[in-house]
Write a structure and sequence with these properties.
Elements (H helix, E strand, L loop, with lengths): L2 H60 L2
Length: 64
């Protein structure tokens, strides 16, 4: 192999490694986003249930 062919092959391998690292970073960030989204949805649902229970409690307390 000539020096130019070796240089081209090394650049190609470096590009593959960079793409693999980028893919891993994107996967980690997406995983964190998904976890945060699920936590947010749970907190929203729990807050809604809490507000409904307080409202029902007030209605029962004041016999409206």
């Amino acid at each position: 192999m000539t020096n130019e062919q070796l240089e081209t092959e090394i650049k190609h391998l470096a590009t593959k490694e960079e793409l693999a690292k980028l893919g891993e970073r994107i996967q980690v960030q997406f995983g964190d986003f998904r976890t945060d989204l699920i936590k947010t949805l749970w907190l929203t649902q729990l807050s809604t249930v809490g507000i409904i229970l307080v409202g029902v409690g007030l209605l029962l307390h004041f016999h409206v």
